[in-house]
Design a protein that fits this description.
By secondary structure, this protein is of the alpha/beta class. The protein is 27% helix and 16% strand.
Length: 299
């Protein structure tokens, strides 16, 4: 049973406004992502009380108290299983999960694998700034080779994970890439990813500037190289071409846009046989049950 997303008659940026001040470093990509995410929800007419925003631990996680709405700030690397569970409890609510490259490709990499594999109907936005920013710039699994970082002044001894190649090996149903310095493009990608929830798991790789600790993939570096592949005629249904664009050398050009999308596969909830004929959500089926008759066995 496919349950449509809950959308309202309208929303505004003002409804998401919060009195708490943003405290990210000047020039941090979180400012742009924070703005684009709200714009995308407003464009989709989703009010703050109609969506669930789930945040992992990291600089981006401090966004959880910088806007209004239903928000959850979880444990490091564990945001995806929580978001998946919340979505399964009430499939009508749009669920967005946010995580950094550190948590998502280290502590939480197993959760990412199974989120894609299971095709959970949620949106995942990766804050990809190539380091652990909150703990002062340690190298992550996505930090480039030979880059001096805090706690790794000679560069990382491990091999860097090629995140996009890894992701495509899991056979995703939606992959997009965008850049934290382009708010209109991020807004477009986020809206498309949220809309894809009715078909399954939507992964958005946000190449994010970290002016304090990432001095290799800077705002200027990304600004010069990122381009919209959809504007150049890329067909997102072409899996082979999508993977080629996603994994191509980024030293000269970086393909952004909807890289890949397919809508013909059922998502996790639609494959649950016991839920096939249900017209209600699990959240609607919760009721108070008198457990006294079972407790009597132990008295």
């Amino acid at each position: 049973m496919s349950i449509p997303l809950m959308t309202g008659s309208g929303s505004s940026m003002q409804q998401y406004r919060c009195a708490n001040r943003c405290t990210w470093c000047d020039g941090c990509g979180d400012y742009g992502i924070w703005t684009a995410m709200q714009r995308a929800l407003v464009e989709l007419k989703i009010a703050p009380w109609q969506a669930l925003l789930c945040y992992d631990v990291g600089c981006h996680g401090n966004m959880s108290d910088k806007l209004l709405g239903y928000r959850f700030h979880g444990l490091h690397g564990r945001v995806l299983p929580f978001a998946a569970g919340a979505k399964l409890a009430n499939p009508r609510v749009p669920v967005l999960a946010f995580g950094g490259d550190g948590a998502s490709f280290s502590e939480g990499v197993g959760h990412l694998v199974h989120a894609v594999r299971s095709n959970y109907p949620i949106t995942f936005i990766l804050h990809n700034n190539g380091n652990y920013g909150l703990t002062t710039g340690q190298a992550s699994a996505l930090t480039w080779q030979d880059q001096p970082m805090n706690a790794a002044p000679n560069g990382i001894p491990e091999r860097t994970i090629h995140s996009m190649d890894f992701l495509f090996s899991l056979e995703p149903t939606f992959v997009a890439r965008t850049f934290s310095g382009d708010i209109p493009h991020m807004t477009k990608m986020f809206a498309a990813a949220i809309a894809h929830q009715q078909h399954g798991f939507a992964f958005v790789d946000v190449l994010q500037a970290c002016p304090t600790y990432n001095h290799f993939a800077t705002h200027e570096y990304l600004l010069e190289r990122c381009y919209d592949c959809n504007a150049e005629g890329h067909d997102p249904s072409d899996a082979a071409k999508a993977r080629q664009l996603a994994t191509a050398d980024t030293s000269k050009r970086i393909a952004c846009g909807i890289l890949y999308q397919r809508t013909d596969l059922p998502h996790f909830y639609d494959r649950l046989v016991p839920r096939k004929d249900k017209k209600t959500t699990p959240a609607e089926e919760v009721e108070i049950v008198d457990t006294g008759k079972w407790l009597k066995r132990f008295t």
